Amino acid sequence: VIPRQLVVSLTDADGLDHSYRQELSYHNGRMVAGDAHNVLDLGFQWIKVSDRQGATDGYTEQTFFSQVWPRQGQPLEVMRYAAEDPDLSMERATLSYQAYWCWEGSTDEATGCDDFESDRSLHDYYSLDVRQQARVEQRYEMGRLLSTRTERVHLSDGFGHPTVIETEFVNAADGGSSSRHTLRSFINDRSGT
């Protein structure tokens, strides 16, 4: 077992006689045992940061992580809520990922990568790239859903940068929604978009 050094609290002083404290807690740290070259740290199931700014102010943010290879360490869900009452106000983000083998002989010329599930034998020769595919953000107040924002990545360049993104916003209060597509270009873009 490899010991982990963990931060359990942070205190910031602003120089004006005020200090701010954050407390961190960790749950279910996992590793896959093996010899020195084959130990795999799967990280923690969740990490919680509590930021207390007095008796009633502050927030708590809890991040849940994947502990499954090859997506280990990627955040799956982030919840942020008021410290005094989680039902008062809450934000929640859910994320999903796709793993790819990236190599020169890829069948996808735009990205230079093939889907991880398509040929697992490639892992001995090529690099593995885990890319975010979607992010869903929801805002709640008093236990009621206020809004949902969904971001989907339709295309990434050879470096993993999202180049085509669809964003949809739904306001639960009035049922209205809007959608937009974004095209991004990067200086080192190999995809030609």
What does this structure look like?
By secondary structure, the protein is mainly beta. Helix content is 0%, strand content 55%. The protein is built from no helices and 13 strands. The protein has strands spanning 9-13, 19-27, 30-32, 40-43, 46-52, 58-65, 75-82, 89-102, 113-115, 127-141, 144-156, 162-171, 177-183. The strands form 2 sheets. Strands 1, 2, 5, 6, 7, 8, 9, 10, 11, 12 and 13 form an 11-stranded antiparallel beta sheet that branches. A two-stranded antiparallel ribbon has the order 3-4. It is flat. The chain starts with 8 loop residues before the first strand and ends in a 10-residue tail after the last strand. Residues 189-193 have low confidence and may be disordered.
Topology, element by element:
Layout: E1 9-13, E2 19-27, E3 30-32, E4 40-43, E5 46-52, E6 58-65, E7 75-82, E8 89-102, E9 113-115, E10 127-141, E11 144-156, E12 162-171, E13 177-183
